[in-house]
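Researcher: Next entry in the queue.
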Amino acid sequence: MAEGRKTPLYSRHEELGAKFVEFGGWLMPVSYQGILEEHRAVRTSAGIFDLCHMGEITVGGERALEVIQEATTNDASTLPEGKAQYSLLCRPDGGIIDDIIVYRRGKDFLLVVNAANREKDWAWLQEVNKGRAELADASDEIGLIAVQGPQAEKICRSLTDLDLGALGYFNHTEGELAGAPCLLSRTGYTGEDGWEIYMPVQYVEQVWDALLAAGGEDLEPAGLGARDTLRLEAGYTLYGNDIDETTNPLEAGLGWVVAWDKGDFIGKEALAALKEKGVSRRLVGFKLLERGIPRQGYPLHKEGEEVGVVTSGTMSPSLGEAIGMGYVRRDLAGAGTELEVLIRNKPSKAQIVKRPFIKPSVKR
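Model: Structure for this entry, 364 residues:
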């Protein structure tokens, strides 16, 4: 097995018979009973995910908002306490350093970053900060567990006195769950309603065990495999596949998190020029019309000419169809356009469709 860091729940995953993979420098469970079973559990009841590999960075002090406004594309000034927003860190040329979630807490901001980008993001934010705000990498001190699916609220509510039902999507609250101090956020990466639960790392096993006991047959441990098929069905981008430093928000369909009116931010000038000129390619969703499964890196062709590349692909457990995302030439990016995916050098017909592939129960 590949070397990698272990989350505080590694022994729990071993006990559950998990299969492990290296992901972002961590040994993570890819599945337990099987990806299909775990995927369907999230869509029909609930699944529980270990997300302790994710990074958490706090930004505090009187100039915290100033730094976040400069570093991110979205407008954090619109966030009241208890609200979160999806945002991006971009380079001066508009390339995406990471996609993140920004939480407005009482005394500071919490930035949740992708595991593989933790060190890169930390170095970048320090460079942007220039000593203005109080930055701290709290990744090793904070644990994160997600419960996703139609039964998620019921399961979490059984372990806390907090009024979880009163919270809307992308809102969060703080209090006790299963006897542990937690931040509970109505967010997720599956397209289903659910909760992401942050806690001091010493409480992670306690909270995991309590959630599994409370969920019973309605709650299934789920690994990275199901997390990937769930997010792809919901049309969510994955950093390292669909977005990275060579892609920009406009071509990736993430222009909605670029707050043009908030003032200057890193990448604004380059993105404004791209907006005026128009991007040369766009990220699209597609489904196969013939047998096969699209995978990252497969070429996309139109009448024998290469016009793009697959960035994500799978056999959708919910639809029973092969689906994917990829970048194609802008003039070919409209829904209904037929292309070919080159699978092992053999063309397979595909058609561009609107994302998401399934209708999420929540709106991001």
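Model: The chain has three domains: 5-52+140-233, 55-137, 280-353.
Researcher: Noted, moving on.
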